[in-house]
Amino acid sequence: MRFSGLRVLKEGLTGNKGWTPHWRNPEPKAEYDVIIIGGGGHGLATAHYLASVHGITNVAVLEKGYLGGGNVGRNTTIVRANYGLPGNSEFYSHSLKLWEGLEEDLNYNVMHSQRGIINLFNSDGSRDAAARRGNQMASQGDDAQLLDTAALRKMLPYLDFDQTRFPIYGGLYHPRGGTARHDAVAWGFARAADQRGVDLIQQCEVTGIDVVDGVVKGVQTTRGPIRAKKIGITAAGRSSEVAAMAGMRLPIESHVLQAFVTEGLKPMIDTVITYEAGHFYISQSDKGGLVFGGSLDLYSSYASRGNLPMAEHVIESACTLMPAITKAKVLRSWGGIMDMSADGSPIIDKTHIDGLYVNCGWCYGGFKATPGSGHVFAHLMATGNPHRVATKHRLDRFRTGVGIMDEEASGSQHNLH
After folding, report:
1. Is the pLDDT of residue 163 over 90?
2. I want to staple 110 with a disulfide (CB 3.0 to 4.6 A). Which of 54, 140, 184, 299 is the partner?
3. What predicted TM-score, i.e. pTM, was given to this entire model?
């Protein structure tokens, strides 16, 4: 079923009785050409692009829970291409271009809103860093504007510009950045992949990866063994656990990142705002709720929930930056399990095991990378060669020390990225 204005009108006039499920619920076959482990945004996007770009449709996406139940549905929905290092800059530029045509590609409303994103800076040094980042963005053909406080006061009059400790010096404005509806992204990719013949298999946990003489042969699951010629791991914070089934140790740690939503408020924030000094970011959803987050919980965990000390820290940043929201009630919070790489940049590569590929280490960049990640990972799995915008996301950079992309300039400490 294709969506269209005419179809919506017809269903509205006939009691909405003609809608069909978005995707099938098939039984797993004995063998596939490709198995994707993980039914989140990156796994579903990979399956879609394998089918739509490379014509590989004998594909299964295996999800131990339900589609979109992981990080793709547990984030603050920000979409941007304002990365500063070669390797990451061109990748996220590529991903943003895919975002801009995604709804037409999927025939699905993912509610992509290019409302702009402003990264505030609070010192002379951070202003210089923002200028360098903006120049790198411009060199990729992306948009970047350095704003002074006078321009910001007109755009964001509700900020506290004269904080005693962290006065606002200006901001880097990225007009093409914005937000998208997280669960709609998962549903759109799932629906599009299913329509091209991909099997989306839920409640199917992978319990082992079969490797014989250095060649992958298939997986063991709670629904029986499944053979495959190629296997891709897109399990986010669980990637290290899944890779261990094949005898691999990945250079990532899993940390919890919390997010929060307030009660619905009248329209107030029409962009995405990030606050460097507090490591805080906020936007307002179409329903009026303020969606915000901040720093990682400073311990490794697989729990999809946060803790009160970090909640207090993030809300302190919110109130410091925007005193006007101090009386807003927080309705809910949740935690996403972040796969934090040692240099703060992703890993998209084939492994030393023939037929086994990994896509992990996304740190804070997972949601905004969804179409780009799926597109380049599908290219890698289909051709055996990295996509031109992902040539630096190699796994062996952590072994050799060559090509490290320390995006946060924090060194090899996961908890600081």
Report:
1. no
2. 184
3. 0.95
